Amino acid sequence: MATAVGAVLVVAQLTRAVHQARERGRDERREHTITIYLETLDSRRKIKGDELPDDRDAEAISELIDTLLSAEQEGQEREPEIASARRALTQYLSFWEAVALGVKQGVFDFETLRMQAAGHVQALWANYEPWIRSRGEKYGAPLYEHLRWLAESFRLGRPLGNR
Length: 163
What we know:
With 163 residues, the protein is mainly α. The protein is 79% helix and 0% strand. The longest helix is centred in the first third of the chain and has 38 residues. It is elongated and about 85 Å long.
């Protein structure tokens, strides 16, 4: 009987230790998510530079996309201003793709980032989606699928499918 009681106590202690370790892991992931988001504000500004409009400015983004696509059709995509804007846009979307992948893989905390940036990510996806779609058609493969997943998950308020 004493052995059974001892075993139950050990199991209870192990269960509590596992639960506490999970909580510490969640707390650390949440803290890491906030830290990374804040630390990258300056990097995101540098990537965007003057070439990219505010992510919520649908009209300016539409004009940028039209300019980039027109320049491509006219064979002017190597013009310095156009090339610079394309490079900034690619780097910027790639940054967000990496963040989205981090969320999908559980490196970053979904709920913490949702509270920080849901509207931003949804606007970014909605406004740049025509450009992303055109690039996917050009290269014959969908692009920025993790970013699409993140924007849609934020719209629904929960992660889609398996992370």
